[in-house]
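Components:
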Amino acid sequence: MDIKEKIKEKFGNAITDWRQPSSRRVYLGVSRDDIFRVSEFLFKTIGLRLATVSACQVSSGFEILYHFSDDKSGTVYSLRVELRDRDRPCVDSITPICSAAEWVEREIWEMLGITFKNHPNLKRLLLAEDWPDGKYPLRKQES
Amino acid sequence: MSHKIIVPIGPYHPLQEEPEFFQLYVEGEKVVDIDIIIGYNHRGIEKISESKHFDQVAFAVERICGICSSSHPYAYVLAVEDILGGEAAVVPRRAVYIRTIVDELQRIHSHLLWLGLAGHFIGYNTVWMWAWKYREPVLDLFEMVTGNRNNYAMMKIGGVRRDIKDEDIPVIQKSLDELVPALKMFKGAVMDDPVIRCRLEGVGVLTREQAIDYSVVGPTARASGLDMDVRRDDPYGAYADLDWNIFIEKTGDIFAKTKIRILEMEESIRIIRQCLTKLPEGPIDADIKDIPPGEGIGRVEAPRGECFHYIKSDGTNRPVRHKIRAPSFMNVASNKVAVVGGTISDATITLAAVDPCYCCTERVAVVRKDDNSKIMNGWDLIKLSQEKTARLRERRA
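Structure:
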């Protein structure tokens, strides 16, 4: 059974939007409440590698993409989580599942102001110590 | 009574990329914890990228790293080409081969640079001098092929900016031929040296489980038994057409990382030779004008591991979002587990083992909790490391 079928069997309707623009790129829509358990399944059970996490401001709020890499088939599975909150977006941290997420979640928190619940060490990673609180450089209105 | 001392290392002058600040918590000689503080060289390139048009971004991201300076533009153009249907569908074959040649030349020069620094850190200054001596002809090749010794400006959406001239091919081949005995010499000198083995084997171990947990990439991952290489797994460039090998080690120590890098240089030469022999005729640029709306991911196996770029386009001439993840972002974080449990004299080489370009050691301060506060410079820490090698050498003599 390939990974796509395993995900479908395990989560069924929790995956909202399947898109495969090319053979080695798969984008899946996951709700904010499910991201922890889907990530846990991909990382712990299937054994995918967390390549990185990217976040972006969109008109309805924010979207986060969790890029998991299957190094056996060279496929990137990107889980898309939409956060419909323009001011105080919040999502579960996946750092308790894999240490690889610690730094990138801190980066997204300081750059876009998305809070990661249950992150063990949510503090600045790249910005200077005297950078003002509440200013998020990658938010569009800041530019 | 245990006496905990804090040893801050850094931050470094951003002369070379990735200045980092390591705060070692030590008890006697043993490192019990480490804080890693980064961001001293944060230039906001993701933000800058949103204000440049697609063609300019390739130049901007080339400036992220001075050593693997073609990996970022390559991953970037692959991400944009992913929106357009993929490198294989868009880019002329000749350009794909030239990209591969540049990518592999870069791996040789980067690994030689690291080998030299690693030699210096453990007190093998001959290795340092020789490795950098043999790196020079590689930089000369870059100058011939791309016009620059560094920051090559070769990658372009849909192709490359410069062709390789037919009359240059024998010169490149001759230069590679001359490099082969030098690499063989390094292989013998490093792998058969009992003191180097003593110094690097079992030191700075990153176990397979830790490597998975931190999702490390490149030689750091392969040294811990993870069988991954983007060149094979998610093929780009001409790699799928060529015959080459991937090296996996199980021990996860610094010796394994060193061995893998030395062996990879020989493979890079094989790859370049095959590319030169098979170099297809034809154009080098697809002359792409517009980037449609969409999103794409580009991945390149940089000398330090997978370099990851994500691009989101809304159909205008600028990216809406450009996420860049350099391999060291994953690898440096793993120092959190690789350094702890070792000694201060092993910390230098362990922190350097993931190849974060740690060489810009501008200042190192040793702060003791008692009144004997003492500030040392970076050389003192390297000296600690070199003295350990000297002790080992004497013990064996």
